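Deliverable D5.2: sample structural annotation.
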Amino acid sequence: MLLQKIPSEWARGVLSDVESLTEEKVDEVLNKFVNDFKEGSLQTNGWPPALSAYIVSKAALTAYTRVLAKKYPSFCINAVCPGFVKTDLNFNLGYFSVDEGAESVVRLALLPNGGPSGLFFSRNEVASV
């Protein structure tokens, strides 16, 4: 979902390679993004044309979630998008109440030992990155 919005094949490849993903590789992608931003060459170098910082930061966060899940296998470490929740940040234009948005976050926080880890959830469903 998020990675598909990043035109850069290199960045998509690095962030989606679960087996060899490391914190350093996530940092490398983010450093390249920041440098391209400073140089005004985001689109030229394959970054999203709109909302690029948002998309890249969420993709990197999900990748880092996978790194942590691999590093700490006794913990359930996941990323979650609670959906478009009505908050002051979006002038309460969201579709879900705060309680509805919190449901998926709380459910993941209360997973038992041995539950799913290293995944990205969109509300209550495992989603592709």
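Annotation notes: The first strand starts at residue 79 and ends at 81. The CA atoms of residues 76 and 117 lie 5 Å apart.
The annotation will be released with the project's public dataset once the embargo ends.
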